[in-house]
Amino acid sequence: MFSPETSLRDLAGLAAILIGGLLALIVALRALQAWVRRAQQDQPESGRGDWENALAGYKNLRDQGVLSEEEYRKIRTLVEPRMQKPETGGTPPPAKPVPRAGNGD
Length: 105
Prior knowledge:
This protein is mainly alpha-helical and 105 residues long. The chain has helices at residues 8-42, 48-64, 69-84.
């Protein structure tokens, strides 16, 4: 791989290039992580309030005559279960600690 003519200076240069590349990769990954985090924070949380607002909007459309009573009831039967259940996803609840067995001393 290395010939006897390879000097310590050549090896140091190669090591500097490798370390520089690794540092650049770390910086790029951190920037990507920050970008993803910002993008997630910019998106509104979809929760019960969103479904309530949507249902209120459909109720207004029904009151204005845009939707019939039957159409509103169909929409409500689809939306109401989502208002009662918490949205899936996100972070799971913290795990309960598991007792460890003694070592028998």
